[in-house]
Amino acid sequence: MVMDTRPKIKVRASRVRREFGAPFKFKDRDADPASTDQGLSASYLSCNSYSDKNYTLKKAELDNAVQAVPELVDGSSQTDWKHPVNASVQYEPRSISAEEAKAAQDTPEFEEFVKDALPRFELALQQNIIMDVFFDDWGVLGDEDTNFGSKSDSHLKEYQSFTDLQYSKDKTVTCVDWHPMVSEACVLFNHQLH
């Protein structure tokens, strides 16, 4: 904190009333210190205007257009389903008479449809019989910690090779179907590729 250590100086300036409103005239004063007739010329610095040759004025033109359009706002909301309830819908099935069903089954279009769809249905039914689709594969997996890092875990061995130099040389297998329950397998090819 700064404290005053000496008494304050009081200054009073006054001017005679008759000197108020005297005529005046301003003029340019040269700041050249060589001229001694102007008194304190060394305390002034002149900044005369001059033409700067390094200055170039660049004008840029910008074409800009404004169009008033309505604002497009995307909004969405989602409500919480706080009270789930069991619901059911019952409707009346479409039914036809026995004569109409017999007439529909005798048409060539129906026979063509059955011929096209039969292999797909047979394949699906065979797969359901062969393999249990509801079997929990995750539950029968072994514990990872017991055999982690062992040689059998980190290296895969070839179980069986399906090449025969006499019968399968330069031949291509076109289709392989997996049969998980039968130990024997058979590979057939439709035609030989040359």
TrEMBL record:
<dbReference type="GO" id="GO:0045503">
    <property type="term" value="F:dynein light chain binding"/>
</dbReference>
<dbReference type="GO" id="GO:0036159">
    <property type="term" value="P:inner dynein arm assembly"/>
</dbReference>
<dbReference type="InterPro" id="IPR050687">
    <property type="entry name" value="Dynein_IC"/>
</dbReference>
<dbReference type="GO" id="GO:0060294">
    <property type="term" value="P:cilium movement involved in cell motility"/>
</dbReference>
<protein>
    <submittedName>
        <fullName>WD repeat-containing protein 63</fullName>
    </submittedName>
</protein>
<dbReference type="GO" id="GO:0045504">
    <property type="term" value="F:dynein heavy chain binding"/>
</dbReference>
<dbReference type="GO" id="GO:0036156">
    <property type="term" value="C:inner dynein arm"/>
</dbReference>
<keyword id="KW-0963">Cytoplasm</keyword>
<keyword id="KW-0677">Repeat</keyword>
<keyword id="KW-0853">WD repeat</keyword>
